[in-house]
Amino acid sequence: MSEAPAAPRTVSADISLLLKPPEPRSGWRLLPARVAAMCAVELQKLRHDRTELYTRAVQPALWLLIFGQTFTRIKAIPTHGIPYIDYLAPGIIAQSAMFIAIFYGIQIIWERDAGILNKLLVTPTPRSALTTGKAFAAGVKSLIQAVVVILIAALLGVSLTWNPLKLLGVGAIVILGSAFFSCLSMTIAGIVLSRDRLMGIGQAITMPLFFGSNALYPLSVMPGWLQAVSKVNPLSYEVDALRGLLLGTPAHLALDFAVLAVAAALGITAASSLLGRLAR
Amino acid sequence: MTAAVSCTGLTYAFGDTKAVDGLELTVEEGEVFGLLGPNGAGKTTAIRCITTLLPVPAGMIHVFGRDTAGDPMAVRRLLGYVPQQLSADANLTGRENVTLFARVFDVARKERAERVGQALAAVDLTDAADRLAGTYSGGMVRRLELAQALVSAPRLLILDEPTIGLDPIARTGVWEHINAVREATGMTVLVTTHYMDEADQYCDRVGLMHRGRVRALGTPDQLRRGLAEKRGTDTVPTLEDVFRDVAGSGLEEEGGDFRDVRSTRRTANRVG
Description:
The structure holds 2 protein chains of 2 kinds. Chain A is mainly alpha-helical. Chain A has 11 helices and no strands. Chain A is elongated, with a radius of gyration of 22 Å. Chain A starts with 29 loop residues before the first helix and ends with a helix. The mean pLDDT of chain A is 92. The longest helix of chain B has 18 residues, at 168-185. The mean pLDDT of chain B is 90. The interface between A and B is large, with 44 and 57 residues. Chain B: It holds the Pfam family ABC_tran.
């Protein structure tokens, strides 16, 4: 006797909510909602796997431990009376945040290859909101890295402020700076479209951005051409603000915030306009 | 009744190569429509145009009466999309993967957890919901992607090669879930596949696509009987026979570019 055919599968669970489309958000409420969603994903990923957090702490620790302590003893770089390691710490915070953000484009290309980006592009999310969300998600990742570097610096005896308002300012500066560098990376990703090319370009621009800033030495000791580079390099403004907030050195906080905010806005515009190329 | 999808004269070219060449296609509301064809037939490009991923340089597409070029955001709110690649994020749990899509589709916070739970339950993933998606089998990842698509209550579910690389049991499982969900929600399903047997078994209507155009359209039964009549034989041919007949001598093995094949292989490798 032949077996009776299996009954077709039915959904036995309660799916009443799945029959009703959600009420769309509109206007100004859409952007913060998307940014929060993207940032939540980054935090969830970090909660599941903290390896990246630990491995990325090694390089800044070495910079502070070896370069910072050695140059503090040599006293070769004029730092207006503060120990060189203190002077260096904000530069290393900015550097490690930038290193995370500048390779964010690789994650976007990986998401493109895995189909995740396409799926997000088919949601009711304007491309600018998606890019802003990704940029701030990179900022959150960098911020956590910055906290780790601040703790390492504190352990090495760097005299940092613990004023909560100033630390809040540090957070805002790190997020804005990372938003710009991640958008720079996403913009390049939208042009080169391949991980290998982006990796090469990322490596080619990271060190010039770092050495062409005031992260390691003050503007006054740079040759003229490097001073010009440093003045158009957003990393210099990030470092200037971090030094002012963390160490209390003279800084141009309003200008620094303004430059980083404008740079981030321009970065978001450029990256958004090229995001569609990645979907093709 | 408004058609779920209506494509008129849709044309899309990559350089000199016309991937979609004057496509005329209508998908009726509530049906499971299969778009069949080999690599390079233009299925995925057509799907990308319908989902608003690609602009529509020539022709028109309407989804439930809304123009994809004129109002892409309104169209996206009607869609659930599962791409060919395994697109769940392996570094998030199943629940987190679905929650992300609940958030980007504006599901209110007060009902988010319950809605996500219902989407996971609908595809039998409640028990695995808090495991990382990286630990899921290929079939489970496909079901998770289905849950991601369902959480926003789409009217049109678009699946691009949903069973590629899966073993026969997992393939059947995925299709059973698609059908069960369609039955329970009444949504329209547009699916692309290479597998003629799947289309024969699970699709209400199919369009056989070749070189950017639909060459034959109808229920699987209509197409098979049509070929039997044409041949004047009582033996009912398969859907593959129908496809070979409509494609004629133009059915070569050179379809699909490097990226298509790499993507297909990568998906197949990931599902094991």
